[in-house]
């Protein structure tokens, strides 16, 4: 992606955070006592774990450039992939009046 420092964006507020949901299923075998009439059963044990990073925000005022946005997003730890996704979302919302080309 090539960024022009003269490209301006509309005033925006951006929140960047991550939510991760991990689901694990373990199967347990339950066997009856010897010489009983019961049957072996397999039961699932499902574990759900969630992790959420604190959202970070960037607020840009009227006249801010794409360069300023990228610098601000980098300063709060956004990855290149995050920045590209944010720029694409801003373009789709009409906040960037320029052509985005990801290469």
Name the helix and strand elements from N-terminus to C-terminus, one letter apiece: EEHH
Question: How do the strands of the widest beta sheet line up side by side?
Answer: 1-2
| Separation, N- and C-terminal Cα atoms | 6 Å
Helix content range of the residues, please?
A: 10-25%
Broad shape: rod-shaped
Please indicate the percent range of residues in DSSP E strands (runs of 2 or more).
35-45%
| Average pLDDT | 83
**What structural class do you assign from the helix and strand content?**
alpha+beta
Number of domains: 1
Cα gyration radius (Å)? 25 Å
Give an overview in words.
The structure is a single chain. The chain is an alpha+beta fold and 103 residues long. The protein has one domain (12-92). Strands 1-2 form a two-stranded antiparallel ribbon. The chain has helices at 66-75, 80-92, and strands at 12-30, 41-60. It starts with 11 loop residues before the first strand and ends in an 11-residue tail after the last helix. The mean pLDDT is 83.
Short account of what is shown:
The chain is of the alpha+beta class and 103 residues long.
Q: Which properties best describe this structure?
A:
single chain, 103 residues, alpha+beta, two-stranded antiparallel ribbon
């Amino acid at each position: 992606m090539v960024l022009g420092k003269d490209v301006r964006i509309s005033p925006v507020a951006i929140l960047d955070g991550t939510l991760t949901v991990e689901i694990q299923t373990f199967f347990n075998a339950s066997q009856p006592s010897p010489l009983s009439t019961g049957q072996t059963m397999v039961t699932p044990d499902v574990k759900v774990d969630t992790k959420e990073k604190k959202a970070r925000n960037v607020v840009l005022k009227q006249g801010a450039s794409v360069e300023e946005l990228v610098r601000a997003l980098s300063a709060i730890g956004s990855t290149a992939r995050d920045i590209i996704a944010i720029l694409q979302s801003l373009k789709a919302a009409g906040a960037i009046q320029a052509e985005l080309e990801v290469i």
